[in-house]
């Protein structure tokens, strides 16, 4: 009888440790997310399942997940960091006066029959100031014509960022690292 109690206690301890580790990993290190909508197409598709890395701070062109003002989590690409001047002109991104290539938009630009993928704008047009405020970032979806992003919801406080994401793990046919 004592041997059975001891074995049951060992199994219980192992199970408790496994559950505790799963909770720590899930809530403090990595979290799953499901892409909802088409705002990041063609890079991400509705229903893609990804892993969010809760470490580090957002960097330019990272794909991040954040708590949006609508009490919902959004997934977008970081375009502007604190202090940056952002401008789009003739479908070219300028950050602090320097032109940047956005290869993740090449596929979408090829599909545009008329006009540009991203309309011309400056930060002042959307947030009423020339630079991204300290402690905040400017984000955009890759589907520039169909994304609710900083152009409509404003800049995002860095403290609202959950983490960045690079790995699609489902569906199996789409497993890959995204850039």
From TrEMBL:
Domain of life per record: Bacteria
GO biological process: signal peptide processing
Entry EC number(s): 3.4.21.89
Membrane topology: Single-pass type II membrane protein
Positions of the Peptidase S26 domain: 8-170
Pfam family, any one: Peptidase_S26
Keyword line: Cell membrane, Hydrolase, Membrane, Protease, Transmembrane, Transmembrane helix
Catalytic activity: Cleavage of hydrophobic, N-terminal signal or leader sequences from secreted and periplasmic proteins
Group of enzyme by EC: hydrolase
Keyword Hydrolase: yes
Catalytic residues in the record: 39, 76
GO molecular function: serine-type endopeptidase activity; signal peptidase activity
Annotated Gene Ontology cellular component terms: plasma membrane
InterPro entries from the UniProt entry: LexA/Signal_pep-like_sf (IPR036286), Pept_S26A_signal_pept_1 (IPR000223), Pept_S26A_signal_pept_1_CS (IPR019758), Pept_S26A_signal_pept_1_Lys-AS (IPR019757), Pept_S26A_signal_pept_1_Ser-AS (IPR019756), Peptidase_S26 (IPR019533)
Major subcellular location class: membrane
Localization of this protein: Cell membrane; Membrane
Transmembrane feature ranges: 14-35
Family: Belongs to the peptidase S26 family.
Name of protein: Signal peptidase I
Species of origin: Heyndrickxia oleronia
